[in-house]
Specification:
It is found in: Periplasm. Belongs to the bacterial solute-binding protein 5 family. This is Extracellular solute-binding protein. The protein is α+β, with helices and mostly antiparallel strands and 626 residues long. The chain contains 20 helices and 25 strands. Helix 9 packs antiparallel against helix 13, helix 11 crosses helix 19 and helix 18 packs antiparallel against helix 19. The longest helix has 17 residues. The two termini are 29 Å apart.
Length: 626
């Protein structure tokens, strides 16, 4: 987990103003780097990331364990469970995007398939010019037809892209190397830049036929390895249990600034194991899992005492980060009538005793989350004032009155009396919403219906987080239970919003924009596969999302985001949990790595490489380790 970088409103307004003036000055001029906050530290003469070893050796195998299973190589549709190395938003290991999001700066992208882009001063369109060297693994060039086709099929079939590019009306080839995206509104400062996030897919492959002569269909799952363009391709696989990726020796983009010193492993092997405990055992023995990102405080503090750690053959390392924190929370699904009353949702927030959990379960390593934009200047605090208050005043009659008079605060269990106080308050809120305790059970005062909720989970962490909350909910008569299912079922049910409560993380950036529609909009609430997990349908939220997207400057963006954050918090759509200000990694000591790692991301494993001497020593000492 990550911790964000704080800035003063005044300083950030100056940065944004400078960036805006710079963008205006360069309107309709080609550029190879884009930024939403300020100029990239590398400028337009970007050679390679300053933290990488540009002479990093290539070779070796990076082994990883993945829990669950897979049944598809098409990650852009709701159906199926994509294999490791494929992602639903972006290119993963297989595909390149028009531009590549920077690893060491927020809201910055550098050239990839597109060598440059430009846009007019009114932000009504964006033009991307393709690198003539860009090609698919079969040697055919990546064309503007591929870009246009990719935009059309992704917007039609991929929920995240549909919301992200909602304001993009079409993509048009205007020359052999240039594609122009048209927008339905002017003034959306983010859109020209984020068009670079478009993944480019091979039109000729997807519109062709497979070995049996059957026409391929991008709207369906497939286990035929697709044609790609990025640094890796699928070398072999065992359905549901293993996938092996091989580095492409003549990868077209290997000498681009974003790639130099990175993507150094010749092979990446992902082995699927059904549960977390078995995955842990695989890591301790070596051979199947080389690097373990650790999320369990208990395990990090107590379980890394096996022989390989004592011998120094497994290394524990803490990486600090400077990017925004995710909102990790229990998501209350308002598609269920049970959670449509704000008083009920607030009541469910009160029994979550973070302080006791942090002390007894998490070794005081976590911090309570108080904002959807934690760790950034975008997080609301205190009472609304200034431009934020001006924005919120327009919706006063549609907002909780407390929003204007009270600072939003979550319960703090800091004394033996706290539990009684907060549980009593929860019971009072339930009573106001028409629920009372009878015979020790929370029931509807009119119908006698039992208040019953089910938390859906799939790994051990879900059980650790849920159990204390469930125990406190039961103390006030709520029939709360945790249902554990396998990962594939879990993904399918989440994609179709078939749950009462889930634990999820929502990652924000320092420059929010079009993705907010996928998180909160009324339209996304009815779109399977969207990230509006709470099922929010709130006209005020919709309006604030648009206000963010069409912010006129940084100050306006910050104020609008404060307003959205405050409205989301006061509507109690989720029960916030916690974050950790660092990334914990444990790894078998077979790697070389740069002296620095990017502080924004924390750790860039793509910049690591296999050290043959270390690998050989481990292989001699531990059977099966490579």
């Amino acid at each position: 987990m990550k911790v964000g970088r704080f800035r003063t409103l005044f300083a950030s307004a100056l940065v944004f103003a400078f960036a805006a003036s710079l963008q205006a000055g360069f309107a309709d001029e080609w550029r190879t780097t884009s930024s939403l906050i300020g100029p990239s530290k590398y400028g337009e003469n970007f050679q390679h990331y300053d933290y990488v070893n540009p002479d990093a050796p290539k070779g070796g195998t990076y082994n990883s364990v993945v829990t669950g299973t897979f049944d598809s190589f098409n990650p852009y549709i709701v159906q199926g469970s994509p294999a490791a190395g494929l992602v639903g938003f972006g290119g993963g290991l297989l595909y390149d995007t028009l531009m590549d999001q920077a690893t060491d700066e927020g809201s910055v992208s550098h050239r990839l398939v597109a060598e440059a882009y430009k846009y007019p001063a009114d932000y009504s369109s964006a033009t991307y010019r393709l690198d003539p060297r860009a090609k698919w693994h079969d040697g055919q060039p990546i064309t503007v037809d591929d870009v246009v086709w990719s935009f059309n099929v992704l917007k039609a079939n991929a929920p995240q892209y549909n919301r992200y590019f909602e304001s993009v009306t079409d993509a048009v080839a205007i020359s052999d190397r240039e594609v122009e995206f048209h927008f339905n509104q002017k003034g959306n400062r983010e859109l020209p830049k984020i068009m670079g996030d478009l993944v480019v897919l091979p039109k000729h492959w997807w519109e062709g036929t497979d070995a049996s002569g059957k026409k391929r269909d991008i709207t369906r799952p497939t286990l035929e390895p697709p044609l790609g363009s990025a640094a890796y391709k699928i070398a072999s696989f065992k359905p549901g249990s293993e996938i092996v990726w091989q580095r492409v020796p003549d990868y077209w983009g290997a000498k681009l600034p974003v790639k130099i010193g990175r993507e150094n492993f010749d092979t990446q092997r992902f082995t699927y194991i059904l549960d977390d405990n078995a995955a842990w055992q695989a890591f301790t023995k070596g051979g199947l899992d080389d690097i373990k990102p650790e999320n369990s405080s208990r395990r990090w503090n107590t379980a890394y005492n096996f022989p390989a750690v004592s011998a120094g053959d497994v290394v524990k390392q803490v990486f600090k980060t400077t990017s925004p924190e995710p909102m990790q929370a229990f998501i209350l699904n308002q598609r269920r009538p049970l959670f449509q009353d704000r008083l009920v949702r607030e009541a469910l927030t009160l029994p979550f005793d973070f302080e006791t959990m942090n002390r007894t379960l998490f070794y005081n390593s976590n911090t309570r989350t108080h904002s959807y934009f934690q760790g950034t200047e975008l997080a609301s605090s205190g009472l609304p004032q200034g431009k934020e208050l001006e924005i919120l005043e327009k919706y006063r009659d549609k907002l909780p009155p407390e929003l204007f008079t009270q600072e939003f605060k979550l319960p703090v269990y800091d004394s033996p009396q706290a539990e009684r106080k907060y549980l009593k308050r929860a019971v009072d809120l339930f009573a106001q919403a028409g629920w009372v305790i009878k015979g020790g059970k929370m029931v509807n005062a009119k119908t006698g219906e039992l208040f019953k909720l089910e938390i859906l989970g799939w790994n051990d962490t879900d059980q650790v987080i849920s159990s204390p909350w469930i125990a406190n909910l039961r103390k006030i008569g709520v029939d709360a239970n945790l249902r554990m299912i396998d990962q594939t079922q879990y993904i399918n049910r989440v994609n179709n919003f078939d749950y009462d409560v889930i634990t999820s993380q929502l990652q924000q950036s320092e420059s929010p924009g079009n993705e907010q529609r996928d998180f909160w909009s009324s339209k996304a609430a009815d779109t399977p596969g969207s990230r509006n997990y709470s099922g929010i349908k709130n006209p005020v939220v919709d309006a604030l999302v648009d206000r963010i997207i069409f912010a006129t400057d940084r100050d306006d963006l910050v104020a609008a985001t404060h307003a959205l954050d405050r409205v989301l918090l006061w509507n109690y759509y989720v029960v916030p949990q916690y974050y950790r200000a660092v990334i914990w990694l444990a790894y078998w000591n077979k790697f070389g790595m740069p002296q620095m790692q990017p502080s924004y991301r924390g750790a860039d494993i793509d910049s690591w490489w296999i050290d043959p001497g270390k690998e050989k020593a481990l292989a001699a000492k531990y059977k099966g380790v490579n």
